[in-house]
Amino acid sequence: MKVQGKDYRTVWPGAHHSVDMIDQTKLPFEFVIHNCPTHKETREAIRTMIIRGAGAIGAAAGYAMAQAFAEAPGINFWRYAEEARGYIDSARPTAQNLFWATNRVFEAATIANRNNIAANIAMMEAQKIADEDSEWCHQIGIHGNSRIERKPNGASFNIGTHCNAGWLAFSNWGSALSPAYVAHREGKNITVYCDETRPRSQGARLTAWELQNEGVPHFIVPDNAVAYIMSKGVLDLFIVGADRIARNGDVANKIGTLEKAIVAARYHVPFYVAAPTSTFDLNCPTGEKIPIEQRTQEEVLFQTGPNRAGQIEEILVCNRGSPAINPAFDVTPAELITGIITPKGIIKPTEAEILGLFR
Ligand code: MRU
């Protein structure tokens, strides 16, 4: 997608086996490219959410794995790569794409009989993951667009979304926002309502920034206003992304997704999840088994942004001394999900298991 007229992906190979990525912790206030010289820095960028969102985490993890192969010493080559895989996998626990990507790059490299060939294959596989991710997300957009109507008299079709599952959360296009981008480029009149998504405000910061860049009409919605706007019939559709989808169709996604799904069911707003097949974990029987990341209380207690003079500052926004909880994800049961928009088409959540055929 374009930033200031130039095409970008979220993450790409840099010079001398390094990895470059858009620093999402600085957006929307500053557009900065972050360079990771080794797999350790790339892993750290995932952990600290310089790069975040399931697909982008997967693409970065794939590149990190390839970096590890490029760095590995001649002796203990495979032990170095194996240890690096464990280290990269420990960056964050919930998004399935991370483990899927490191495993895929590692397995691809094992067919090589020479170390330098293994390193080349690893980089090619990582690149393929990023390219496929972009293509899959575009396909998600095409399928999801079929649920976006042209309303009579040119009225706006209103789409709600939570967190950021746009192009910043993938290599390109995004999952939940991709249908909106396709619809907008086709000339459909749409408006996207993006939840703030406290505590890191991925909706208010990242989704709003993306939509503004693409010229898509949108509003930022306070997290606690979604029930109100749904009760007033404002939203025609709600689409979220996913960090992991269990075999029974339960979906782990950004904290707050569950309550949006409950409210959508109450007010009969179709509630879709959009995800590539790399987000499905067929080894995970139900949502209860999905590990939920617990993040630091600092993210709840403090907020960062520019002051009136434009300098970035961190300020306390809660009562000094009160502790906070910060679960990063929740699980929405399959029964609350109207459908899952995949690159292959739209399925019922309970059909998730058959996605094994798509790999
Ligand atoms: O903690 P994050 O920002 O990495 O969380 C990921 C998300 O943005 C979402 O939950 C998103 O909807 C799915 S990722 C495509």
Structure description:
This protein is of the alpha/beta class. Helix content is 35%, strand content 19%. It has helices at 39-47, 54-71, 77-89, 96-109, 115-145, 178-185, 202-214, 226-231, 257-266, 298-301, and strands spanning 2-3, 6-7, 11-13, 19-22, 33-36, 157-161, 190-195, 218-221, 237-240, 244-246, 251-254, 271-274, 280-281, 302-306, 312-316, 329-332, 339-342, 345-347. The strands form five sheets. The chain has a seven-stranded mixed β-sheet. Helix 1 packs parallel to helix 3 (77-89) and helix 5 (115-145) packs across helix 6 (178-185). The two termini are 26 Å apart. Bound molecules: 5-S-methyl-1-O-phosphono-5-thio-D-ribulose (MRU).
Number of strands: 18
In order across it, which strands form the biggest sheet? 8-7-6-9-12-17-18
State the CATH superfamily name of the largest domain: Translation initiation factor eif-2b, domain 2
**Total separate domains:** 2
Q: Architecture of the largest domain in CATH?
A: 3-Layer(aba) Sandwich
Query: Which cofactor or ligand species appear?
Result: 5-S-methyl-1-O-phosphono-5-thio-D-ribulose
Q: Helix amount, in percent?
A: 25-40%
CATH class designation of the largest domain: Alpha Beta
- Average of the residue pLDDT scores: 95
Shape, please? globular
Measured by DSSP, the beta-strand proportion falls in: 15-25%
**What is the H/E string?**
EEEEEHHHHHEHEHEHEEEHEEHEEEEE
In angstroms, what is the radius of gyration? Answer: 20 Å
Structural class: alpha/beta
Profile the largest sheet: 7 strands, mixed
- List low-confidence stretches: none
Number of helices: 10
Alpha-carbon distance between the two ends: 26 Å
Remind me, CATH topology of the largest domain? Rossmann fold
